[in-house]
Write a structure and sequence with these properties.
Layout: H1 6-9, H2 24-29, E1 31-39, H3 43-46, H4 48-64, E2 67-72, E3 79-84, H5 87-96, H6 98-101, E4 105-114
Antiparallel strand pairs: 1-3, 1-4, 2-3
């Protein structure tokens, strides 16, 4: 059985994000966007007051098709990761999230994520 490197089968260079076959619209289809939150040390104790509104915001974004999945990282609970279909949706979410508005989130950022395997990805 012949082994093929995943890196050589992708239609773009992972390190430069440049299309190998000048099919730039395909690269756009491979993107999701991850919203990263850094949270305060006592996040678990402080979130209860704002959790209902936060989860309502998340469920609404999911129902619109903007949010794919999300949750807090564990052991330790120091970050939250939420995956969106667009950077705009991720930024809009963060700007109206009660966790951000009330100081539970110390910083946030949105990163592009090239997805090539799994539901919602565009395999090469």
């Amino acid at each position: 059985m012949r082994s093929t490197s995943l890196l050589t089968t992708l239609p773009f260079d992972l390190y430069t994000s440049k299309s190998r076959n000048n099919n730039n619209h395909r690269m756009k289809n491979l993107m999701h966007h991850i919203l990263f939150y850094k949270v305060v040390d006592d996040y678990l104790n402080r979130r209860a007051e704002y959790r209902t509104k936060h989860l309502e915001l998340a469920r609404n974004a999911f129902e619109r098709g903007d949010l794919i999945l999300g949750g807090a990282l564990a052991d330790p609970v120091d970050s939250v990761v939420i995956v969106f279909k667009s950077a705009e949706a991720a930024e809009a979410f963060a700007k109206q999230d009660p966790y951000v508005e009330n100081g539970l989130v110390t910083s946030w950022r949105v990163r592009k994520w090239v997805t090539v395997v799994g539901e919602g990805s565009s395999p090469p």
